[in-house]
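F.,

This is the one I mentioned.
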């Protein structure tokens, strides 16, 4: 125990002496030259508010700046007003599901019929999409076999294809009204 305390004190003294020697070398070197403050390239003129550039008027012509030149607050203000050019366009879905009418919302049995129609529409969409998905999966299996993928992985995918086809057949058998071929 005594050894640990003594070694700790000696280590601290060595570290302090090393720091003092390093600090003494730093004092001998000349001080670094003073750094003059330079205005930012897109800094507004003194006396003008930085937001004025985003609200053009007769005495305040708009300034053009790229996003890299703008500080974050200015960039956000510009995006709020003019929109963000990197944002992808919003595309509306072509098939809008019908909303429940106020009459259906008020009557329990009418709302159950509405739910049934919605569920059948969803099942029909699934049934319609399965053949294309099956074809894609079978193409993937053929490419996997050609590429030398492990047989157990190929068999796993083949089971998935068979299960998906069986699920579609079961769905069409239980709901013949959604069969697109009839």
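My design for it:
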């Amino acid at each position: 125990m005594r050894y640990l305390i003594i070694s700790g004190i000696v280590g601290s003294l060595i570290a302090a002496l090393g720091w003092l020697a390093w600090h003494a070398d730093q004092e001998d070197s000349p001080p670094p030259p003073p750094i003059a403050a330079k205005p930012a390239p897109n800094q507004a003129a003194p006396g003008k508010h930085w937001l004025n550039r985003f609200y053009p008027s007769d005495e305040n012509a708009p300034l053009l700046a790229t996003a890299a030149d703008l500080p974050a607050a200015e960039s956000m203000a510009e995006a709020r007003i003019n929109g963000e050019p990197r944002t992808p366009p919003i595309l509306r879905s072509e098939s809008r599901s019908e909303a429940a009418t106020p009459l259906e919302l008020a009557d329990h049995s009418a709302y159950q019929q509405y739910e049934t129609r919605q569920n059948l529409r969803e099942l029909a969409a699934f049934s319609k999409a399965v053949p294309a998905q099956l074809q894609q999966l079978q193409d993937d299996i053929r490419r996997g076999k050609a590429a030398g993928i492990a047989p157990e992985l190929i068999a796993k995918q083949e089971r998935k294809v068979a299960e998906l086809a069986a699920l579609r057949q079961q769905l069409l058998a239980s709901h013949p009204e959604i069969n697109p071929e009839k």
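The mean pLDDT is 80.

Talk soon.
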